[in-house]
Amino acid sequence: MTYFNVGEIVNTHGIRGEVKVLATTDFAAERFAPGEILYVKQGSQKPVKLTVKSHRQHKQFDLLTFEEITNINEAEQYKGSQLQVTEQQQTPLEDGDYYYRQIIGLEVYSLEDELLGKISEVMETGANDVWVVRRPNGKEVLLPAIKDVIQKVDLDKQRVIVDWLEGLDEQ
Question: Residue limits of the RimM N-terminal domain (predicted)?
Fold first, then answer.
């Protein structure tokens, strides 16, 4: 079974087993809703199934309790662990939307079919995402993920066709 990270347990909170989670999902309210199933992964061990009992926000963190964890001693063992969901639990995306894991690693080609590099990272900005393209020469170029630039994403061929803007490579 394939698992995907949705958050990291960074600490405990209180003595009743509540944990402080740094979310790595855009769907935190849905993922961490009471009754939802999450899996906690520690090292190479098999993921442990947990049922969300409660969820609340505190500053930039999500505070969760689980049916299976009733005190701080039980929660302590999971500090630093990843919270995960299965592939079947993932939220379906609209056409033209992609998970970061689908974009990272794609080769970037120009309209003229020239290999420009490979996407190494996706950065979130206020207006739009920015894809970091590592050029064959090792330099990185920031590519805005907007319709004028991104012409086609072909997951089957593991490539992206872009309208490479004049001056993007100049530094």
Answer: 6-88
Q: What value does the mean pLDDT take over residues 151-164?
A: 92
Residue 42: CB partners within 8 Å, gap ≥ 6? 48, 77, 78, 81
Q: Report the alpha-carbon distance of residue 64 to residue 9 in Å, rounded.
A: 9
Distance, CA of 10 to chain centre = 16
Q: Does pTM top 0.85 for this prediction?
A: no
CA 151, 132, 92, 147 dihedral sign is negative
For residues 72 and 91, the answer to whether their CB atoms sit within 8 Å is no
Region for 117 from its dihedrals, namely left if φ exceeds 0, alpha if ψ lies in -120 to 50, beta otherwise: left
DSSP per-residue string spanning 129-155 = EEEEEE-TTS-EEEEE-STTTEEEEET
Which residue, among 157, 169, 170, 163, has the nearest Cα to 110 in the 3D structure? 163
Kindly state the average pLDDT of the residues 65-78. Answer: 96
β-pairing, 115-124 with 61-66?
Answer: unpaired
- Which amino acid appears at position 170 of this protein? E
* Length of the chain (residues): 171
Q: Give the SS3 label for residue 89.
A: helix
Percent of the chain whose pLDDT exceeds 90? 60
